[in-house]
Amino acid sequence: MLRIALPNKGRLSEDARELFTDAGLEIRAAGPRALTASLGSEFQALFVRAQDIPEFVADGAADAGVTGFDLIRESGRELEELADLEFGRCRLAVAAREESGMRTLADMPPGTRIATVFPRITRQFFDRCGLRVEVVPVSGAAEIAPHIGIADVIVDLVSTGSTLRVNGLLELTTVLESSSRLVTTAAVRADSRKAKALEELVGALGSVLAARGKRYVMANVPRNTLEAVRRVVPGLNGPTVIDIMNGGDHVAVHAVVSAATIYRTIADLKALGAQGILVTRIERLMA
Ligand code: AMP
Question: How far is CA 6 from CA 27, 42, 72, in A?
């Protein structure tokens, strides 16, 4: 049995549950507050705070875990990254009050006080920049600090940027780009049985992530447009072309295409005389 630590609440928890469920690892918990749950096959989920997951994995309480790259780096623990799970995307940024007049790091006077929930990353960042600052660790709501005289500057997570704007703060620079990661340790990887199970888990999660950015498109097109159709829907290895019974001069083409440009794809296919266009989601994609 492999224990996988998953965030019990907060921004990462819903997305982690959804990804595991989509990958066929349905979370079967005894109740909404259960601390563990079966994930079917050889996995068990352990629900803990996202902040604690790097420690739990590093100490061997869990064999692997899902948490934010920011929290992994802040923990300072030695962990091996198995996959970027893409959700929980955000950046850790340096921000100052708009009225401070600071626009870049070069405007920060020596000894500037910086409030943050990420003291380790912040110290490392300013050390690397060769800037002398005073880090003020806080446990949350760092954006208040400049307004109540605790600090002049903050280092905080930014997603849309609206929290900074609402609090009259201006981003000076990015310290770190973050997203959720699946991590384990070298010790777990040295166990061939566990390593194999984790490899299968990475494959399953990866196939769901790959499928999310894709759509399966089907259309009936005049046979004499196939060369042009191939340019519109190149597919993974060229589109699949299928005869249609009594289809006259039409054939069916099927292809996997990018979800981001599906609107354009449909318009281009229509312009080539395509009929009966169908677009579906893909559950899993193993290229
Ligand atoms: P936003 O207003 O969208 O820029 O979000 C910023 C607020 O949400 C800050 O208070 C952050 O601490 C928090 N936040 C944004 N993204 C994440 C994330 N991926 N993980 C945890 N907290 C986040």
Answer: 11, 16, 14
